[in-house]
Amino acid sequence: MGKLGYSTKADPESTAKAMGRELDISPKASVEVCREIKGMMVEDAAHLLEDIISLKKPVRYFRFNKQVGHRKGKKFGAGRYPKKTAKAILDVIRHAQHNAEYKGLDSDNMRIVHISASRGMTTEGYMPRAHGRSSPFNHESANIEVVLEVVGE
Questions:
Q1: What is the DSSP letter of 7?
Q2: Which H helix or E strand runs over 29?
Q3: For domain 15-150, is the CATH number 3.20.20.10?
Q4: CB-based contacts of 118: which residues, under 8 Å, 6+ apart?
Q5: How would DSSP label each residue in 42-84?
Q6: Are the C-beta atoms of residues 82 and 7 closer than 8 Å to each other?
Q7: Distance CA 124, CA 68 (A)
């Protein structure tokens, strides 16, 4: 496997980066959550992710919304509460904040410039079935990359 780098260029003087590799979360849910928080201030994104974790605010599903129930709200549409994904992405954002503090940047005044999710490695597994047979039951993972930028400098 080759080296996995960031998919965007960033100024090292005013940005901080973090990457979560092979996270045990759904790649499809992580794409939707990343789309929801891209461009937000870090603290606003953290509050939104905490609301998702506590089942107060759903994430609208645009792409992967077949057989997804609609949620309350004016013209909200299909949505879910991906708790596990929100926790993992919040951890990666917190790591990027700590990297900013280490670099001497103002970690409270940062904006999410780039956040993306991609499929990670798929671990093959099998589920035992009746009469000595088995069915494939694969386990997916996701890669998350976050780039934060200081606002107002």
A1: S
A2: helix 27-37
A3: no
A4: 27, 142, 143
A5: HHHHHHHHHHHHTTSSPEEPSSS-TT--B-SSTT--BEE--HH
A6: no
A7: 26
pLDDT in tens, 69-121: 888 776 778 889 999 999 999 999 999 999 999 999 998 899 999 999 999 99
Q: With both helix axes pointing from N to C terminus, report the angle between 42-53 and 83-103 in degrees, rounded to the nearest 10.
A: 150
Identify residue 125 by its one-letter amino acid code: G
What is the H or E stretch that residue 149 is in?
strand 142-150
Rounded to 5 degrees, what are φ and ψ at 116? -145, 155
The CA-atom distances, in angstroms, between 55 and each of 35, 40, 48, 152 are 18, 20, 10, 33
Q: Which two tokens stand for residue 25?
A: 């979360």
**Identity of residue 138:** N
Whole-angstrom distance, CA of residue 89 vs CA of residue 133? 37
d(CA 94, CA 49) in angstroms, rounded, equals 12
This prediction's pTM: 0.89
Tokens encoding 17: 């980066």
